[in-house]
Amino acid sequence: MSKIDEIKQALAAATPEWFDNGNEIVSKQNPKVGIGGFLKEEDNHLAANAPEYIAYLLKKLEEKEIFLTGRQYTINRLKEQNEEIATMGIRQGEQITRLLQSEKKQAKKLEEARFALEEIAEHGGVNLRGASCAEIARTYFAQEGEGNQE
Question: What angle do the packed helices 41-122 and 3-13 form, to 10 degrees?
Fold first, then answer.
């Protein structure tokens, strides 16, 4: 049994209402039954109101526990969302990497084609290896794959 449960059980079993009659603390249900007195009036006041004070504090504790349970749910949900966002970020990063690699391959292929076309232009329609403009176009633009396949 937890300490809180122990306190609740003791409070439930205690005489329901007390008051300070000036000399001692007595039951409101039966004022002839006293539970004792203290040296100072402030002690009597505190003891007489202890059940009410304890009940109030237990209620506040339960309210805080409910509040904290709600906060914990929110924290857990935010952690889940954060993990989802991180996973999406990783996937998007991978996609960006693939796109950049593809773009580099395309840029390389275009640079090779540009070079071949410049070579053809300089040598009257045929490059140094004797390929015609049509052959170069087929090599660089009609074939699927990576780059010039001679």
Answer: 150
